[in-house]
Structures are given as C-alpha cells and as structure tokens.
Amino acid sequence: MTTSDIGDSHIEDWERRLAALWAELDTYEDPAEFRARVAELAGERPADDPVGLFERGAAHDSTGEPEQAVRFYQRALDGGLTGLRRRRAVIQLASSLRNLGRPDRSVELLTEERAVPADRLDADEAALSAAVDAFLALALADTGRDREAVSLALGALAPLLPRYNRSLAHYAKDLLTSPDGS
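RESULT FIELD:
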C-alpha cells in the first residue's frame, strides 16, 4: 500500500489526530508512552512511509533521544520526504547531529538547505528560512566560526525588528568583511 492508496479524508483525520497528540506532549509523564503513541499512529501509514518515519524521529527528538531521531530523520529523507516536513527534517536532523557532537555535519546540511532557491519553497517552507539560519548559527558557533554565527543570527533577527532593520542587516554583513572577520 502507498500513501496514494490512503483516502484524503483518512489523511486529514490522521493529521488531526497527530496534531492533537503533539498538543498533549507536555502532559506525558513517561516519554516512552508518547513515543509509543506516535509510533502507533505512524503504523497506520504504509511501512517505511517518510511522513511516519519523520514523526517518529520528531517524537524521539522531543523526548530526549537524539540518536534514534537521527536514524528516523535520515530514513525519512532517504525515502523521499517532501514539502514542509522535509525542511523540518533537515533542520531537526542538523540540530540533533550538533547536539551529538557533529556540528560540522550540521553546518553542511544547513548550508545546503540555505542554498535551496526561494522559488522552490512554498510559503510554509520559506517561513522556516530564519530557523535554518538560527540553527546554522548554533552549529557555526560550535565549530569556532563565531563571527559567521553572529552574522547569521543578526541577519535572521533584522527583519523582525520594528526599527533599525537596515542598520542591523548592514552590521551583520560587516561582521564578515571587517578586518577582524575577513
């Protein structure tokens, strides 16, 4: 069975039940119980379905098991995960790898993600561009590339400010071209 064999109404119902489960995450005293509930929902999808794998990875990630999360994220991406979940999987995989002491790989993944042309992203995916930059800044800092990290973080922050956007964006770029950041 493929995801195309599942009816649209069933997919919508599945997504609603999944969203409700995620909304209850903080009410679970036992993280294993939450992971089991997500695995149960993922089990309603075809075996090795990228969406189910992603959700299982996110459940492990959100409950303190980054090693398992990495395996699920990678399988989901290798299995053809698309759209918003694909972008989230890259961000979350990179974050988990950084937390596991692999910031160089995190930098690679997020640099590649940052290079995806804007015209290939829908509005929801594009809305995560600042998140890509923020997590890349963390990974850069972990690799000793502090000026690049601060530049990215300031560049991501600049559009959100009610004033000083232009100045902050200029200073962010200047960090990379000033004598200390050459």
